[in-house]
Amino acid sequence: MRDVAVIGVGMQKWGELWAKSLRDIFVESALLAMDDAGVKEIDSLYVGSMTPGLFSGQEHLGSVCADYLGQRHIPATRVESACASGGLAFRLAWMEVASGISDVVMAGGVEKMTDVSGGGATYALATAADMTWEGVSGVTFPGLYAMMAVAHMDKYGTTREQLAHVAVKNHENGSKNPRAQFPMKVSVEQVINSVKVADPLNILDCSPITDGAACAILVPADKVKDYTKPGVKIIGSGHANDTIALHDRADMTTIRAATEAAAQAYKMANKRPEDIDFAEVHDCFTIAEIVISEALGFFEPGKGGPAAEAGETALTGKMPINVSGGLKSKGHPVGATGIAQIVELTEQLRGESGERQVKDARVGLAQNMGGSGGSSVVHILEVM
Amino acid sequence: MRDVAVIGVGMQKWGELWAKSLRDIFVESALLAMDDAGVKEIDSLYVGSMTPGLFSGQEHLGSVCADYLGQRHIPATRVESACASGGLAFRLAWMEVASGISDVVMAGGVEKMTDVSGGGATYALATAADMTWEGVSGVTFPGLYAMMAVAHMDKYGTTREQLAHVAVKNHENGSKNPRAQFPMKVSVEQVINSVKVADPLNILDCSPITDGAACAILVPADKVKDYTKPGVKIIGSGHANDTIALHDRADMTTIRAATEAAAQAYKMANKRPEDIDFAEVHDCFTIAEIVISEALGFFEPGKGGPAAEAGETALTGKMPINVSGGLKSKGHPVGATGIAQIVELTEQLRGESGERQVKDARVGLAQNMGGSGGSSVVHILEVM
Fold it and tell me: Whose C-alpha in A4, A310, B167, B212 is 20 to 30 A from the C-alpha of A54?
């Protein structure tokens, strides 16, 4: 297998992009990535999207995206693993280049979530959970993550304030990201006093509904010299699943799919958690960032909350997490999120992140999650 | 890259499986494939499904299927390319084994289409076309394929009777397939006099709405000796796309995505169309089989209709096509169809097909199609 590098990335400012269609949004980010990489053609395309059928009434997204990108006859593959669809697209693009089948592969992610009304978005998102056993009981994602939060508080003493600190820190980071949907700063008091969604989670504990896309271009590492920008090497990739239903797991205070995927990625990269300089993780809810920061080995179980409160995960902390603003502030167009994490890692490792640049960033990790942890994809990238 | 072989396949009798859920249907076929291969565990899973969100209110199918199969922590990936989702799952499973990442990979396909009522299935299927430009005009798949039929009749003189001969032949083959949804034989007169759907296509020119799944197990070719059944080698794989909308193509009488995918597969296999002993092709409508039999190079453009009428594509003809009964008689649970084609090729190449066995079958081709030809996947398999 060949070593693989990212040579270009692109994403537009995310938000409620009502003036643009699903395909417009994809193409806009794809062209930014192609410009960044300096390529006019790609050999193959992977598109991660969770449920364009329910959100936009359009499936067959490989064909749609390749067509409107002007790359009509290439292999174009849509993959889905709920909110981990983008990370999975990146993994398959890596696999295709690593295998030697193709040389220039685009991994993209896209979701247009604001074209459904009423409870449409909540229903569409709920199809990432177990609709037969969870959905039928009326539980949706805020409820599932609230149950994890209650269990984590009960077992480890995690506090309401610690959850709020995750939101405060991510909005602080997002305020430095010109592409973030909600770049405003928030205070601990604002989070704690914001409207209740599913106890103990308030609206400011939840990632938003977003339209957006993100794309990355992958090439063999030994061909990076043919391009103008520095390459960023993919040194680890992992992908694992778990029970689709939360209640089928032995422990609701951790995410085993993330731990298993990380173990694969750490092994391939020959790295340990302490070798990671910064990470983008799947903070769909504030509790998720705490649980994941433990599942990835950055903190001992139960220590994620205190670490967030102590500022250890801030931009200038010893383990910066979600310096992009995370899903919380940057936005969460579900299928695009995994690729946006790669965009952040790539720009950070190229030293292009301006106000939110992590000092001496050489190794970054991205963790993308599907559902309540039914799936997870982890990648580790390094400066070349 | 390593050579890869199919070591086991499975599928249940297809039909209106109202007593079984989406996940039941998948697991049933998956266990048949694991029994056939003699394996108790798999390293990785690919599931092709077109739109379980719209048909069954359930996405995140990789997690659901791995979970209910009792393989909870493996990487499990759902892929979608409309009705070519199954073929695409097979291609990615091949890629994962060929790359050396995994040794025992399952490629599955599943769709449960009968749980929606009214125009639900027609709407769900229409999302495989261009919903912005085709769907908005009210055209659905029978209409799109009817336009292809009219164009083919106009350009080449293809007749209404020739279309009927495809249906007659596929139901004749399906009558020998115990897993076919509609195993009854039909006559040319019955097809011509059946109720009109979209002129010139009648109901007996159309593949049905079906519940079903199919699975295959892939391993490195050099490990086939560790298993009990003979392996069947994957010697060619191709995948290509085209414009999502029919009206954007230069020629509506052919399917360029199929020609391009076949060219890749023929090149990799070092085979020509005349080296293929039999083929399973995507006969979602009778006209599709004729167009595809030309696009794959089995017949000159315009000669597919006369060949079908002359019996050249019959079980005992010189180029047997859809000896399984095809989508037309066997049924068409969209995401499962591409894997069912692999099931038929594998069993034929192992000499297990009983009454519908192709004599001296050594090389088989499977062509799976998405939408009106927005995507196509082609595989060539050979006796080891």
Answer: B212
